[in-house]
Amino acid sequence: MNVQLNGEPKLNGGAMQSLATLRIFLDSLEEGVLFLDASRKVLDMNLAARRMLSQVDESFVGRLCPSLFVGTACARECESRGHCSLMRAQGEDRKTQDVVLKGRDGSFVSLRMWAMRLPPGDSALSCAIILRDCSRELALETEVRERWQLGGLIGRSRTMQNLYQKVLRAAASEANVLITGESGVGKELVARALHDNSSRSAGAYVAVHCASLAENLLESELFGHAKGAFSGAVALRLGRFEAANGGTLLLDEIGEVSPAIQTKLLRVLQEREVVRVGENHPRKVDVRVIAATHRDLAAMVKRGEFREDLYYRLRVLPLEVPALRDHREDIPLLASKLLGELTQRYQRPDLTLSGEAMAALEAYDWPGNVRHLFNVLEYAVVQAEGTTIGTRHLLNEVMAGAPAQAAPLASAAPARHHYLPVADEEVERALIRKALEESGGNKAEAARRLGMSRTTLWKRLNQTA
Fold this sequence. Notes:
- This protein is an alpha/beta fold.
- It folds into 3 domains: 13-133, Beta-Lactamase (2-Layer Sandwich); 173-322, Rossmann fold; 326-464, Helicase, Ruva Protein, domain 3 (Orthogonal Bundle).
- It has helices spanning 13-27, 47-52, 73-81, 135-147, 158-171, 187-196, 215-223, 240-243, 259-271, 297-302, 308-314, 331-345, 355-363, 369-383, 396-400, 403-411, 425-438, 443-450, 454-464; strands spanning 32-36, 42-45, 97-102, 108-117, 127-133, 149-150, 153-154, 177-180, 205-209, 224-225, 237-238, 248-252, 273-274, 283-284, 288-293, 317-320, 352-353, 388-389.
- The strands form 6 sheets. The protein has a 5-stranded antiparallel beta sheet. Strands 9-12-15-8-16 form a 5-stranded parallel beta sheet.
- Strand 13 (273-274) and strand 14 form a beta hairpin.
- Helix 13 (355-363) runs antiparallel to helix 16 (403-411), helix 17 packs across helix 18 (443-450) and helix 17 (425-438) crosses helix 19.
């Protein structure tokens, strides 16, 4: 490196040796470092930055920094502002920017960048841009995440893996599907995964919540109406069946529809045609119907509350979504995903769950299932005053819901894998992957389980990937 810290003063032997030592130190860093002057021109960079930016000679010297990141949002913002967009004002948190660059060999590198203002002095140096190569880390996280995910569904348990297989098999068919399960388990996510993995994925996906509409409104909503069909029908309206033509229609909470609507639905399923309210002639529709309910339709059939013929028309392919208490091992994965969504919404990216809080979540029975878990986490995010969610930030119902299990779990020492550095990279990679899987991709939690700092984990991710 050729960084001039104080212009070009006359240096004695000791100062020259110190400067040489500083250059050796900078070139030994895993992070890349770019030194810029006040006009954002590059003065120098260390070896890691040269590797990340594919710089094989000194041609970068004197170039504007944005020219090294052409096509990225960071470069565009820098050019439009006329100054480094990563520089933070007094009192602001560190600003980071993620970019993806294409190297000379055609491969892509994912970088995380932030800026550091240098103290004013005689030197031309104004600031340093720090680059961290996240390519291997992101690849490993993606490998872990995608293995346990199907659309919006998350879970690595055998129960959820079996559900994924059934969903994919059902998606390959055109038959009607009946999705059952308790409230809050994610029946809508199953319906969406069915559509997205089917031959109709390019077509419309239309959902209607049957319990939210009165009978007369639901009929118009489903089948449409002609202009003047009833008071207030000032214009023609297409129904949801016609809107979903060529695609998929979800009839959510099908157990709440009246006998009259059940009869009309049966005709649509049999004839594949709808009649708008106020009209007499049928219209052909090509729709794959998915119905969902938290009610026991078989019991309703026995009580005469639901048409048996409609029930069997809908239940060609039955899918039951498990309650959260039946696959507790997925709670860390789900909690991590939901917490990530909430921290982004509330702009609190550093917020994490303590081991005791996670143990309490795993011990609770979750009568409201995944939706209930989301609500509890949102409450905790709002209540947490620091960067860690503890048991004191959880609702009392969670802590009191399973006293025989939650208390010992919450007080127990967090589970660790007692990580020790190993010579076999495959063994080390497996340990890290397992910790990431069990923590739902949460690096802070994975580091805690491994008994190492987050910085050490990041280094291991780069070394063992």
